[in-house]
Amino acid sequence: MANLSNTRTVFAFTSPRTIEKIIPEIQVLVDSFAGKEWNTQTQIAFFHELFNSEFYEGEKMPDNIALAARDRITRAPKALGFVDLKPKIQLTEVGEKLLSEVRTHETIAKQLFKFQLPSPYHKIPAERGFGVRPYLELLRLTKELGNLSKTEIAIFFVQMTHHSKFNSVVAAIKKFREDAKKNKGNRKAFIEERFTKEILKIYAADIKANNLKTRESGDASLAKFIKTKRSNHIDYADAFIRYLRATQLITFDKKTFRMIVAPSRIAEVDYILKNVDRNALPYKTEADYKKYLFSPASLLLLTDDRKYLERQLSKLSVKFDVKVSIDSLKDLLEATEKKMISAAIQQTEVSLKNYKEFDDVIDVFEKITKKEVPDPPLYLEWNIWRALVMMNYAKEVKGNFAIDLDGVPLNTALGNMPDIEVEYDGFKVIVEVTMSSGNKQYEMEGEPIARHFGKIQNNSALPVYCLFVAPKISEGALAHFFNLNRFNTKVYGGKTRIVPMSLSQFIAFVTIAKDKSFNHSKILKTYLDSMIKNNQSVDDETIWSQQIHESIPVWVS
User: Fold this and answer.
1) Residue 214, pLDDT above cutoff 80
2) pTM, full prediction
């Protein structure tokens, strides 16, 4: 049970950042440990299996392995009802639905809207006055205000510890927006000042009692306390957005990147806001709560209504048998929506050709660099895909990220595949992108990129190249790829062909393609071959990196 005796705000699950990543981790847990007790020994054994799986990101074993295991399982998987850890480890009925990966967004939506504070899993002192379903109220707030920013969620929404505070939070955000418009000074300074003011208000009792020491630091100064709380609030806001995004009920405005109700899901959102109880329900026992939490039928969505499904299919001119099950109707609607998404992707590809969207692509890259988009890793994948489609002269540019019904990127590529796959005449290019930097970049990307390269190369008669793009290439990642390219590694299909570029270099690379009228894929292959040839002959990775940098302005000749 989570210890929330000191909590002052609502919180989101920050591990993992993307909820879909719990699916393979839960699979590892139930495959190897179902029926066993969830104790320190099991936790350590579970994390070792997880660490050795192909989808685990990172190369360093944590210092406290049991704690790391609990962090992965007792937060989102347990709290959202996908696994039961008492008395023995077992998959729940909604957990089975999640692992089936059939209409994952529906399963996630139901569990997010059941999540409440307090609960038998999350005991909070009564004097704190908690009574809220955070994800439900965040959806309601988005609908009420029309849009929300991460900053507004971090400063104001986290204070909605009871649903009765909804109107006051709405008023506070509206006032914040009015004040921001009137502000003639530095916007960043204005936001920081308002953020600090709210933190001082939220944690006034702690500050008065001089209870300023945070778990992350021994520094007990007020400045450090405020900085830590601000960082925590931003992390919560980011996680709230990512998890709610997985329901497909919200999306992002294509111009402002603010969170909005998905236009294609307005009826579904209205149904939820009208029919799902806003109260944090009382439960006499943990067993009663589990019964509610674990049942797929204890909270219904509009898509559980047969008449709604039939109306939607009829609107889309899809024929169906009135005698089939609701699940069959759902399958038919989902298949139809996938076709609509494929058509939207094709339309996007057409609009990108001949550099018609060049200015917008470059503008989005700038916003990614400044972290002015809601999910920078996702938008980096998507925008690099747009740039490669824009360059043209490929047979296919396949982005392995997902797109929603409104044509907005939904989630990043799964961990067992490259981010982007491009097929040209006579060769293939995989593209891997990351927002990570420093040692974390090497730990997260080093082995997976080489593995993805080897998997594609070993199954291809054509030569494969890999383009690795990050805001900044770390020394560790550069050295790793430099050496991998020079030595035969059987599991990677021999010598790898990985070319790293910083984001600024990639932007210059695309700009040169436009300015110099890149018009044949053979030019690209010749360039990549030259970079790999240089890799084989120079003394070290810094020289090679400099050669890559100097080559970009003349790569199309």
Assistant:
1) no
2) 0.89
